[in-house]
Amino acid sequence: MSARIVLLGLAAAALAGCVKTDHSVDRFVDSGQLAEKVKWGVYVDPDGCDVWMADDGIEGYSVLRLDPKTGERVCSGVLPRGYAADHKRGSTIPDPI
Questions:
Q1: Of 85, 97, 95, which is closest to residue 30 (Cα–Cα)?
Q2: What is the pLDDT of residues 66-76, one digit of tens each?
Q3: 20 to 30 Å CA-CA from 96: which of 1, 36, 60, 89?
Q4: What CA–CA distance (Å, rounded) separates 80 from 29?
């Protein structure tokens, strides 16, 4: 009987991880649609690949830049490694760092 309860608990925990979350919405103090709030810029990682990034005051966001046809990372080589450009606009909440 206790094994059945444990299995039911594990199944419930596994299903709880299947909840879809809308990642295009900020749910913090200055909540709203991210596309309307932040300006996305580009960062070049140490491998030389592009990463979309945005700064929203306390929060920051980054997404790998992928080729829509192949799904592979884009490593354009246009900017030097470690370079970040055009990502500062966001919240009126000050960044504590």
A1: 95
A2: 999 999 999 98
A3: 36
A4: 35
